[in-house]
Structure formats: C-alpha cells, structure tokens
Design brief:
Layout: H1 2-24, H2 27-40, H3 50-70, H4 74-98, H5 115-134, H6 145-168, H7 184-187, E1 198-207, E2 210-215, E3 228-238, H8 261-265, E4 270-276, H9 282-299, E5 303-307, H10 310-316, E6 321-324, H11 327-333, E7 339-344, E8 347-353, H12 354-360
Parallel strand pairs: 4-5, 5-6
Antiparallel strand pairs: 1-2, 1-3, 4-7, 7-8
Helix pairs in contact: 1-3, 1-5, 2-3, 3-6, 4-5, 9-12
Amino acid sequence: MKNMLLLVRWVVGLLFIFSGLIKVNDPIGLSYKMQEFFEVWQMHFLNDYALIFSIAMNSFEVLAGVAIIIGWRIKLFSWLLLLLIVFFTFLTGYAHYSGKIKTCGCFGDCIPLTSAQSFYKDLLLLVLILLLVGFQRFIKSALSNTWAFGLIVVTMLTATGAQFYVLKHLPWVDCLPYKVGNDILQKMQMPEGATLDSMQLVFEYQKDGKTVEFDQANFPENFDDSYIFISRKDKLVKKGNGLKPAIVDFSLKTLGGVDTTQAVLTTKGKYLLILAKDMDGIDRWAPMVQHSLKAIAKQGIPVIIVSAEGAKMSAIFPNTTVLNCDATVLKTAARVNPTFVWMNGALIERKLSVTDAAQYFK
C-alpha cells in the first residue's frame, strides 16, 4: 500500500510541478487562455483579473506538487488538489464536448494538447487524486514540519518571483511561432502534406412547398421561375487534415491601410521591429524607447514600430515608421509590451523586452 501511494504521490506531484513550471515560464499565455474561456461564458468582467489568476494558479500547482511529494499537510493538499482537478476536468470536458475551445493550455504553448487529450489526462489525475484522498491516513511527511514549511515557502517565492521576472523581461523558453531563429515567411507557408477543407457551393430553393438543395453542377432539368430562391451556402464535402501554417494572420499595414507585409519581410539586410500592442504603460516605457531610438539611429539600422494603435503611436514617435498589426498577433509575438525584435529579412535574430533593450543601448 505504502509503495503504491508513494508512486501515486510522485506521479501526481511531478505532473503538477511540470505543468506549473511550464506555465510559470509564460504566465501571460495562461491569462490569454483564461480570457478565452471568459469570453465564451460572457464573463468579460473577469478579463482584467486573468493575469492575477494565472500567477496564483501557476504558483499553487508547483507548491501543491511539492507538498504532495513530501507528504506535508497531506489532508489539506489532497483535498485542495481534488477540488482543483474537478474544476480542471470540468473545463477540459467543456472544451472537448462543446468544441468552442480548441486547446486548454494545460501545459502551456510548449506542449500543446488537444481538448480531448487534456480531458483524458485530467480524468486519470482525478482517479489518482481520489486514491490520495481515500488513503491519506497512510501517508506521513518525509520531512520535519520546519523543513517542509521552509521548502514550501521557498517554492512559493521562487515560482511567483519567476513569473514577475518573465513579465518584465521575456519567457526563458519561447515556444511560440515568433521565437528567435524562425523565419516568418516560412512559418506562413502551408506545411507539407496539409489538405484543406473541401467546400461545395449549395443552393437552397423552395419548390411546391418543399425545400430542395442542389449544387452548381446539378441544377434540376426543369429549373424555372417556380423555384423560389432561399439561400446560398458553402457545404463541407471533405474535411482537411487540420494542418495549417504556424503563422496564419501576420499582416503589416500602413496607417493608410496598404498591406506592406511582403515588402517588409523581404527587406534585404537587418532592421528592427518594435512591437507595441497598445498604449498600455506608455508613460513608463516611451522614454526608454526614445532613448533606444537615438542609439539605434547612430548605427544606421532601420526601425519600424508595429502596433494595433498605429495612429496614436505615430503621434508619440513622429520621426519613426509606424505600421498597424492585429492586437492578437502582437499578443503572441511579443509577450512584453513593447518588445524589440531584430530582423534579417524574415528571420528573427534576437528579441529583447523594452527593459532589456534600454540596458542594451545604455
């Protein structure tokens, strides 16, 4: 019994630690996933608190995993994990069966799981945690209360502090399509072996009080004015294999609305993109950007500011080229607002947060 419970504790504990640490690397990513759920459930008032929830959730996952492994306060943490996994199972089950959420973000963007994989993983964890709850009386702490409490405190401080660090700098491990070393144009291409959904244009008419459907190649031989048009729609004939480009929506436009994506990404030589999703915190970071722009000008490197609020950004940085880009794209490409991205054609060579860039150009 003790050996079985020890194995279960290690499996459950390591899974929660692993899951928590992956998301500690990128708490912004989990906050965006939470906001996706909030939007589906029409709970928009919680969007502003998503990042706080994310930081707390990630820290607790790591802390609870450590507590379960060492067996400290097993009654408390086994019940807390049971409540947590029931909640997670509901979320992943909802995503799986509703189809409204494609991925649940359980292991962040580094290990993307489908909603089905996440749901079955949580069902397994639910069974294992139920074993811990049912046989908690057989579990004793492997450390004294003083050492265990000290380890828990260190774990909490480290997990929380690490998240505040990456919020100011950038994730240590970038698992997104816009990571250093990726070629944006290549990532925008359809992967080899990909097949798209096959669609067919279908017409819907009413004839003699009945609704009839036919495609463009199969019009009725007796088609005349007695057919009353109802609608025209695209019908799925054959579903594709789901493969698609890693980057599907990257688009740069001038303030006048002209698409300049290809022109920018096929630029010969090096240039710098400053990705600033919006004006949030601009009073804090605008001076750092201005300082960096002066240093960059001496190097003769072209600079383009990319934002979802290009007109406003242009007013603050009047002597710099400004392009518009979708805010959702920038949320993925730049976890810190703003982020400096050194480019060589379409190749991403380096990324720094505005804080690190200011130190770089100091």
